Amino acid sequence: MRANRGRDTGPEMLVRRLVHGAGLRYRVSARPERDLRRTADLLFRRARVAVFLDGCFWHGCPAHHQAPKSNATFWSDKIAANRARDAQTTHVLIERGWSVLRFWEHEIRTDAQNVAARIVEEVRRRSADALPEKSVEHGTEEP
Fold this sequence. Notes:
Elements: H1 10-21, E1 27-30, E2 40-44, E3 49-54, H2 72-95, E4 99-104, H3 105-130
Parallel strand pairs: 3-4
Antiparallel strand pairs: 1-2, 2-3
Helix pairs in contact: 1-3
């Protein structure tokens, strides 16, 4: 199993290049919350956006996952646990005020531009919401 990368996969690198090219900066494989033992593939702390790029095999994509025939019970349990952990992570982060974006590997492979555009849009939207309003005339904060 060592040959299976946990980070810096081809689809992940492609999305990172596109998002970086759009001018956004982010953390890679970082914990959104210190007490939560989960790492987002891309993390935008100020905007509070966590992005997870889920592999079709490891996360049980409904469209593409094919369970191995050997050791079927092990793999079935493993993928079910991964999916449950993903759902719990999403739930906890949303409760704590994060925006969580999840994309399947096949979405990235078929339309990485769209995936990157959705990430950029969400980060910019959340960043704009967090900024104090400025007066156009004086450039000062509104009360």
